Amino acid sequence: MRNILSLFIFSFCLSAGAAPYPLTGSAGTLNPQKGYFFTPKGFQLNAANTQWLPQAHQMSEGVIKLSPSAKSQASLTVRTDRLQKGISLELYSRRWMRDYPNYGFEVLSAKNIEINKSPALVVDMLSREKNRQIRQIILHNKEQVAILTCQDQRSHFAESVSACNKIAETFHWIQE
């Protein structure tokens, strides 16, 4: 009798579709396209209306990389940085803008925008040496910035940047 009961419980566990604990396994909140994995960093970013997914094998400490496929040249990396108290987005970005040419980037344009009530700076660049085009979106909230970097081969950039922009438009800081 005990063997039959154990077999029944075992087979039930194999067929169960729900996650055994909230926020684990098959829980809907872990859908990578919904971007909830950014929540511990203080923001959310949603890729649900695109084919872009996180590429786990290409992540490094503090940087999350999304792309349409593991073999794609297109990518959107997301990282955060802490600012010293009182540092503005303008001051933070001015330092980087000055250094871009030293790294082989030609700055094509830079403009201030707002994404979901968050101040942001959009910088478009070109790397002629690597034949790549890059868009960086730097978003500011208190003493934190989120840097979204979209890049691809120049010949495919218009298509990639459209998906990156769609993802970036979903960005919002989580209010404490």
Model description:
With about 180 residues, this protein is of the alpha+beta class. About 20% of the residues lie in helices and about 35% in strands. Strand 3 and strand 4 form a beta hairpin.
How do the strands of the widest beta sheet line up side by side?
Answer: 2-3-4-8-7-6-5
Computed CA radius of gyration, to the nearest angstrom: 21 Å
What multimeric state do the chains show?
single chain
Number of H- or I-type helical stretches: 3
Q: Which shape, going by the Cα principal axes? A: globular
Helix content: 10-25%
Number of strands: 9
N→C terminal distance: 54 Å
What about the largest sheet? 7 strands, antiparallel
One letter per element, helices H and strands E, the order comes to HEEEEHEEEEHE
Mean pLDDT: 80
Low-confidence stretches: 1-30
Q: Strand portion, in percent? A: 25-35%
Give me the secondary-structure category.
Answer: alpha+beta
Map the helices and strands.
Blueprint: H1 2-15, E1 43-44, E2 53-54, E3 63-67, E4 75-82, H2 89-99, E5 106-115, E6 118-127, E7 132-141, E8 144-153, H3 157-168, E9 172-173
Antiparallel strand pairs: 1-9, 2-3, 3-4, 4-8, 5-6, 6-7, 7-8
Write a compact overview of the structure shown.
The protein is of the alpha+beta class and 176 residues long. It is built from three helices and nine strands; from the N terminus they run αββββαββββαβ.
